[in-house]
TrEMBL record:
Pfam family, one: Adaptin_binding
Protein known as: AIP1m
Superkingdom assignment: Eukaryota
Organism, scientific name: Volvox carteri f. nagariensis
Amino acid sequence: MAAANLEKLAITTAPRVLVAGAPLVGKSQLCQVLTSSEAPRSGSCVPWTIQTKYYTTRVEVCEENVPNVPCTQPEALVLVFNLAEPHTFDLVQSCMRHFDLEAVQLKLLCGTRADVLLSADYSAGNVETSSQPAWFKIVTDWSVQNGVEFIICCPHLPALDATLTLDGDKQGVARVMEALQAHEWPYLKVSSGSKLYASTDGTRNGAVLGLDCVSMDGTASGPQTRQDANELEYGQQKLWQVSRRGLTDNAVGEEMQQHDRGDTESSHAVAMLDGLDLLMEEMKGQKARHAMLSDDERREQAAVLTLRMLEVLGLDSEESCSDDA
């Protein structure tokens, strides 16, 4: 009975986004802008529905002052410090020991008050690392070393925030939102007609869209037609293969798309564009992590991304080689 209750709790508990940092660094304002609702009080959480054209999911956003950080591992960790007060970054560093960083799926470092990095001319929101003080370079290096994406933002000045870039890369609250939306959340519910892969068991081995997904209350609607039932059975077989053979979502999705012979050319085109969108969003967050890799490791990662691109386009490496020949 106890095991069953724990299993039910795991299914119905929303993934947690923990927003942590020193007091008065802008955590509440960042939460308010992201969720479009009242920010949670320190030590409390508020529900938030993330809705994109691909999926909808429910999470809880929790705000916490350092060093009062809970021991619970969050799904996403958003560390916040004030760029106008660089010493607040030291508190962010000190709280990292509370977490198993390998277990935290998404890690962001947000520097608020990005307006202090700019000249009096707010019309130009581009920030160059090379023109910043030494402490700023320390922050960027620390982010790379710890696999954390560093984002500068200015939630108290929305017009400026919308124009922010760092070394040419998009910044601001919009980039924070993009990173959260591009994350593969457990228990997400996929939008009708999308080709995204959805998790049905809380893991990241998902079924192709069109199969039923477990909702936050642990229920799932059954197949409505014989074709739906056949697709559901086929999807379950693919999920079993994922768990037993360690196949990637893309590999299973490729096979399942081939299985669905009835798709029209237009639906394949839509699926390809969806896949490219997701791949590009994922690549944005990998820039910092790849900076610490050796040349050989970077080449290997580039090869992996190339293969994934070919899969999204409906090609494989053998076809590519034959075309080159």
